[in-house]
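A reminder from the course coordinator: this example appears on the midterm review sheet, so study it carefully.

Given structure:
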């Protein structure tokens, strides 16, 4: 079957919004480059319809073109390199010389979310690097590739537990934990974060890099899972959503202490009294 590409010129936060829209409307991964965003569909008619809907949604030009047969299992890796976030370095596993070490995470996200390339993940990593404390017990909700849980331990946390409702993603996450030689300190549980978080707690630090509406729904479970004086890091929200999320934080008696923005994506740290 031939694939079709939908190419859109967009920059900064608009590029992230277009990428999110394409993922939602096509069910496929996208490429983000300096020139814009590329989405993919399996049929020419779908490409034409999707491009027309995208033009209506964003008032941007969208071009369709047929793409050559490609090994998509490895094609998405092109252009990815090591990233440094404070003390932390995130390195793709396929780069020459990639090896785990203190404050270094070697990662292959495979088909799970969390490569360190998305602004929401980088925002969460930025705040994690600032606020994780030695000997913390960390809980990562919607853990995907395991990048945040593994990074927490690499940055000094004693243990980390990821909760993910996608069992396939947990297979990837466990491989990444073993790759980073932290399999004995990082574990991943299949299931619903809202149900399991209070049972897995108490935690010193909870991470929730999902979406604003899901973060809001998880607030009671997160408060229940946190120790007094514990911290929660929320990400997965656009900068424009900050003022929508802050009232929910206050209503949950969580007090904001820090935030970060990366490529239009906002992350925030709050403390339980």
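Designed residues:
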């Amino acid at each position: 079957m031939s694939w079709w590409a939908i190419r859109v010129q967009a920059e900064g936060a608009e590029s992230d919004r277009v990428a999110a829209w394409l993922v939602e409307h096509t069910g496929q991964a996208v490429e983000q480059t300096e020139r814009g965003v590329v989405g993919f569909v399996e049929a020419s008619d779908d490409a034409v319809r999707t491009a027309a809907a995208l033009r209506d949604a964003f008032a941007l030009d969208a071009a369709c073109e047929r793409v050559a047969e490609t090994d998509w299992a490895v094609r998405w890796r092109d252009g990815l390199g090591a990233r440094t976030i404070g003390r932390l370095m995130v390195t793709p596993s396929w780069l020459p010389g990639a090896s785990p070490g203190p404050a270094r995470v070697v990662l292959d996200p495979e088909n799970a979310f969390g490569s360190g390339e998305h602004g929401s993940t980088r925002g969460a990593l930025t705040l994690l690097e600032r606020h994780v404390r030695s000997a913390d017990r960390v809980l990562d909700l919607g853990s995907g590739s395991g990048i945040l849980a593994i990074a927490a331990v690499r940055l000094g946390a004693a243990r980390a537990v990821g909760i993910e409702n996608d069992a396939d993603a947990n297979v990837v996450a466990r491989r990444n934990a073993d790759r980073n030689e932290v399999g004995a300190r990082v574990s991943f549980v299949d299931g619903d974060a809202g149900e399991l978080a209070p049972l897995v707690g108490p935690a010193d630090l909870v991470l929730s890099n999902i979406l604003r509406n899901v973060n809001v729904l998880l607030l009671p479970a997160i408060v229940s899972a946190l120790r007094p004086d514990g911290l929660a890091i929320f990400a997965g929200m656009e900068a424009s959503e900050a003022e929508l999320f802050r009232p929910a934080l206050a209503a949950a008696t969580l007090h904001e202490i820090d935030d970060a923005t990366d490529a239009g994506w906002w992350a925030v740290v709050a403390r339980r009294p």
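The CA atoms of residues 187 and 209 lie 18 Å apart. The mean pLDDT is 89.
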